[in-house]
Amino acid sequence: MNGSLQPWQVVREDENGGRYRIGHCATRAEAQRLIQRLRLNHAADSTEEGAAHYLVERVELGGGMRR
User: Fold this and answer.
1) Which of 15, 17, 32, 39 is least crowded, fewest Cβ atoms below 10 Å from its Cβ?
2) Euclidean distance between CA atoms 62 and 66, whole angstroms
3) Which residues on adjacent β-strands are paired with residue 25?
4) DSSP labels for 25-57?
5) Mind listing the pLDDT tens digit for each residue in 16-32?
6) Pairing of strands 53-58, 19-25
7) pTM score
8) For residues 56 and 10, what is the distance between their CA atoms, to the nearest angstrom?
9) pLDDT tens digits for 32-45?
């Protein structure tokens, strides 16, 4: 298996429905730890209520483009 395979992604979704990929992770647990760190950093750096939330999504692999 390819050592760089990272089938989980962390997505930030803002209050307007905008979605932004934050990063890729090798495991779901790693992606969830990333979200915990992001939330802790946001709480420490901001006095504003955080309207954004984070999602863990599985990346579909090997699904070439379809026409």
Assistant:
1) 17
2) 12
3) 8
4) ESSHHHHHHHHHHHHHHHHHH-SS----EEEEE
5) 999 999 999 999 999 99
6) unpaired
7) 0.70
8) 5
9) 999 999 988 877 77
